[in-house]
Amino acid sequence: QVQLVESGGGLVQSGGSLRLSCVASGGTLDYFAIAWFRQAPEKGREALASISTHLGQTYYRDSVKGRFTIASDKAKNTVYLQIDNLKPEDAAVYYCAARADEWGAGGYTLDPNIGLYPFWGQGTQVTVSA
User: Fold this and answer.
1) CB of 37 within 8 A of CB of 20?
2) Is 107 helix (H, G, I), strand (E, B) or coil?
3) How far apart are CA 98 and CA 101, in angstroms?
4) What is the C-alpha R_g of the chain?
5) Cα gap 12→87, rounded to integer Å
6) Are residues 46 and 39 in contact, defined by beta-carbon separation less than 8 angstroms?
7) Do 85 and 75 touch, CB atoms closer than 8 A?
8) Per-residue pLDDT for 106 more than 90?
9) Which residue, among 86, 93, 90, has the nearest Cα to 13 in the 3D structure?
10) Helices then strands (H, E): number in the chain?
């Protein structure tokens, strides 16, 4: 059973940067699609970016392209989300999620259906001050 733990959130000024981490235990993340989601108060969970861990291919939601970067470190069983030029509207709880993905689809599409991801972390809070 894969367990995911996010970290790296915090309070950042608008225009600043953060790197969120998603560490997996209980199994390797190889041949998985790992996606980052976020959820702001009173809003639905929004899919942001996805990576195919064995291909290294990435896919982004249009609205975050250029500011968000997803990357994986197989040796550390960790997936990162770098967020640059933070804006107040980026404030949310950020989650990582995983699903088995032997064909690498996670690198070519971003599936927003949260029901397709059986493994979730507990989330990490990002707060952005104006």
Assistant:
1) no
2) helix
3) 9
4) 14
5) 9
6) yes
7) no
8) no
9) 86
10) 0, 11
Averaged pLDDT for residues 48-66: 95
C-alpha span between 109 and 23 (Å, rounded): 22
pLDDT in tens, 5-21: 999 999 999 999 999 99
How much is the pLDDT for 102?
Answer: 85
CA angle 95–12–24, rounded 5-degree value: 30
16 token code pair: 């600043």
Both structure tokens of 38: 């976020």
Backbone angles phi, psi at 98, to 5 degrees: -135, 145
pLDDT of res. 12: 97
